[in-house]
Amino acid sequence: MVRTLLRRRKKVLAAEDVTVTDPPKVRRAVTAAALGNTMEWFDFGVYAYLAGTLGKVFFPSSSPGAQVVSTFATFAAAFLVRPLGGLVFGPLGDRVGRQKVLAVTMIMMAASTFAVGFLPSYATIGFAAPLLLLVCRLVQGFSTGGEYAGATTYIAEYAPDKRRGFLGSWLDFGTFVGYSLGSGLVTVLTATIGTEALTDWGWRIPFFVAGPLGLIGLYMRLKLEETPVFQREEEAQAEALSEGDPVEQARQSGKGRLKEIFTKHWQAVLICMGLVLLYNVTNYMVTSYLPTYMSGTLGEPETSSQLLVLGTMLLVVLTITVVGRSSDRWGRRPVFMAGSAALIVFAIPAFLLIREGGILLPAIGCGILGLLLVCFAGTSASTLPALFPTRIRYGALSIAFNISVSLFGGTTPLVASALVEATGNDMVPAYYLMVAGVIGLISSFFLHETAGKPLRGSGPMVETPEQARVLVARSRTRAGRQARDVWIRMRHPWGRDQHKN
Fold first, then answer.
1. Where in this chain does the record put each Major facilitator superfamily (MFS) profile domain (predicted)?
2. CA angle 39, 204, 52 (to 5 degrees)
3. Which are the contacts of 26, defined by CB distance < 8 A and separation ≥ 6?
4. Does the pLDDT value for residue 315 go beyond 90?
5. Which of 266, 309, 335, 342 ranks highest by number of CB atoms within 10 Å?
């Protein structure tokens, strides 16, 4: 009994166990990580808003509906290689560091997006044109396989425990700013130069903008330092390897890490996949499919459709950090559960409003979808990294995230457009969102609350030395009370109820 009681005692925190974050470094980490996401989603915004135009440029022999499906098929193809990118970049980030891998993914994303602007059209080189577009999208998808998981991991490992939700929400703030910039640029081009000029040469301009954005992002990421959490883990692993520990040597291998992910953390992997499905089905439905749905399926003017979705993105941008801060106070689990339940309830009313036509009612419908989306966007970056311990965090998150995004998120525009085309039922997207809401609700139910707590496998992270001293003092006080409790139970094993106080 004595051994059992002693094992239950928590380790007393020492001053060196608590990390005091450096505010300037935290700001640089958040900015650099968010800028990479801005770059990634600038491309998505451009591609979503140019879907009809790119269909005419690269698939001119098809019908308008088939052109859209073909364009979204090329869009979805990039997601098929994302798990491969996750398998490469994720474990690599756990071995060599987060900062190095994030610099590589930044280069690849910017170069592949920039290259699309130079591609010849189908009228110039025939079938080779869509093939080259596919190659660019595959490179972009491969690099993105290590981007979001690495960026969330980087911010989470730099953020103080009590502000991880707020700081993590800035990553997805960058997501929607990038999408808004890309979609806004296409909207301005459409309004100023017209559809004919846009199809002829104007579609290249947004892709050319990606080059300078990528260089800025790369410069900022090269200036970053490795996260303090990873540095501590690296030192501990190096010490174990220097002692010739065969168990640690096996765990450090690529196969050892993958085996650990799927044998010891399979529950966390499934929860992660469910939450990622919820977020990304909602995300791609609104950002990538909705503009084409309103203009192509419902027959609304292209410019008004684009402006409505752009307004929705601005709503998300304005509210996302508020949701992130709220998750620090109320918890990640309540926000996810409330958002999932609301998605099930409001998906059909939102699409019924969008179908009504005009401006006011569709704007309300789009606003509802935007507020549902921000529930997941504002909490994902702080929730997902906390599911896994430090030594496998980047790899496990990359694999789980990208498998789910590839199978369900990135295919959302393709599946939704194909189902609407096949069934003739324009409410299919609402039903699709309801299914995602059910899966998200189940995943949220099994999610352990992590708000305000240290990351798994890491010590506490605080903002000031005073907070660190308070944590250490409280830990010693708790340890003293536990020691007293052990002593009472040893002396009076049958009368412990009499000595609780």
1. 29-452
2. 90
3. 158, 159, 160, 167
4. yes
5. 309
Residue pair 182/42 in contact by the 8 Å Cβ criterion: yes
**Torsion sign over Cα 491, 495, 500, 501:** negative
Give the model's pLDDT for residue 413. Answer: 82
Judge whether residue 10 has pLDDT over 70: no
How far does CA 78 lie from the centroid of its chain?
Answer: 16
- Note if the pTM is more than 0.70: yes
Q: Is the pLDDT of residue 495 over 60?
A: no
Cα-Cα-Cα-Cα torsion 261, 264, 267, 270, nearest 10 degrees, comes to 20
> DSSP letters along 151-198, please?
HHHHHHHHS-GGGHHHHHHHHHHHHHHHHHHHHHHHHHHHHHHHHHHI
Establish how many alpha carbons lie within 13 A of residue 92's alpha carbon, considering only the half-sphere containing its beta carbon.
18
- In which element (H, E) is residue 54 found? helix 51-58
What residues have CB less than 8 Å from 69, skipping those under 6 apart? Answer: 414, 417, 418, 421
The average pLDDT across 325-335 equals 95
* Beta bridge partners of residue 462, listed in sequence order: 20
> Whose CA is closest to 450, among 362, 365, 389?
389
- The token duo for 3 is 């051994």
3-state secondary structure of 89: helix
The tokens of 494 are what?
Answer: 């049958």
Structure tokens that stand for 222 in this block: 């090269």
Q: What radius of gyration do the chain's Cα atoms show?
A: 25
Return phi, psi of residue 471, to 5°.
-60, -45
Q: Give tens-digit pLDDT for 162-220.
A: 999 999 999 999 888 888 888 888 888 888 888 888 888 888 998 898 888 888 888 88
Q: Are 117 and 47 in contact (CB under 8 A)?
A: no
**Distance between CA 83 and CA 407 in Å, rounded?**
10
Q: Where are the alpha helices (DSSP H) in 81-127?
A: 82-96, 98-116, 122-125
Q: Do 275 and 448 meet the contact criterion of CB atoms below 8 Å apart? A: no
CA distances (Å), 250 to each of 160, 272, 385, in order? Answer: 32, 26, 24
Please choose, from the candidates 62, 7, 269, the residue with its C-alpha nearest in 3D space to the C-alpha of residue 149.
269
